[in-house]
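Summary of Year 1 activities. Much of the first year was spent building the evaluation harness for sequence design. The harness presents a backbone, in tokenized form, and records the residue chosen at every position. We chose the following record to illustrate the format because it has been used consistently in internal testing since the harness was completed.
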């Protein structure tokens, strides 16, 4: 599933493609369940004639700010991706939504596993207020992280994956951050010392910035991997320290990385550096 660096990379690419200011002339939905909160017919009627005023991100959502305060929120889930090109006269394989623009281009949404969802709302507050702080914002300090962890008895890895605690983190960057902070993923959050929380705060921001610098993480070449706009691949795979490096030497101590299950999630750890 795309995480903060991948989603932000897509947002950056959509903005660079000069979509802001253009109007959606027509919309088509080819997999009805892609639309989360209304019928495909109602979705298309409401979307047609809307102008894209801004494109942003909150947590793992891509946000299209539209006319009169309407918001289109797109959750890519496992395999969702966008392409931008000429309008298709008939839906291509795995294409579930098409939005035709006033400049002759069309923004098309593809999703091999069909888990992604589009939500069109007039009042976005109810949708966005449940998320925790954005980890790359200036407001996200070590004190804020400590407050988010305070009194929590859950293991630190599944807690960090909880979007109501911190927004945008997923399996890749939590594994990377915990390794960088030298914290075992099974540690109880409320047992972390002050210096460990400071190290974790620094590590979270570092691994996310690293992912952004390399336009996200694409693992392998299958359709289920991350691709940005028009099939652009992320380059962060070669900068990962532990994620999916089972059996390879830890970059710090040389001992093999092991794969364990924490909170029902595949987890990668160095048992020497992360005691």
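For this record, the design step produced the sequence shown next.
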């Amino acid at each position: 599933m795309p995480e903060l660096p991948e989603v932000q990379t897509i947002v950056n690419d959509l903005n660079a493609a000069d979509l802001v200011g253009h109007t959606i002339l027509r919309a088509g939905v080819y997999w009805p369940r892609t639309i989360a909160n209304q019928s495909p017919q109602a979705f298309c009627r409401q979307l047609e004639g809307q102008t894209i005023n801004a494109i942003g991100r909150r947590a793992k959502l891509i946000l299209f700010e539209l006319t009169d305060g309407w918001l289109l929120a797109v959750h890519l889930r496992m395999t969702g991706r966008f392409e931008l090109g000429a309008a298709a006269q008939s839906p291509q394989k795995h294409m579930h939504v098409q939005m035709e623009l006033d400049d002759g281009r069309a923004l098309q949404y593809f999703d091999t596993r069909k888990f992604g969802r589009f939500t069109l709302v007039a009042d976005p507050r109810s949708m966005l207020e449940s998320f925790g702080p954005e980890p790359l914002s200036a407001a996200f300090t070590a004190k804020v992280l400590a407050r988010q962890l305070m009194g929590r008895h859950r293991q630190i890895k599944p807690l960090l994956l909880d979007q109501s605690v911190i927004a945008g983190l997923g399996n890749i960057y939590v594994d990377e951050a915990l390794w960088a902070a030298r914290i075992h993923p099974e540690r109880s959050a409320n047992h972390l010392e002050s210096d460990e929380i400071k190290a974790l705060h620094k590590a979270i921001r570092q691994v996310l910035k690293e992912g952004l610098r390399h336009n996200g993480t694409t693992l392998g070449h299958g359709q289920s991997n991350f691709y940005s706009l028009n099939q652009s691949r992320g380059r962060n795979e070669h900068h990962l320290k532990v994620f999916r490096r089972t059996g390879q030497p830890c970059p710090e101590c040389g001992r093999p990385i092991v794969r364990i299950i924490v909170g029902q999630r595949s987890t990668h750890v160095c048992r020497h550096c992360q005691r």
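The chain has a mean pLDDT of 96. Quantitative recovery figures across the full test set are reported in Table 2.
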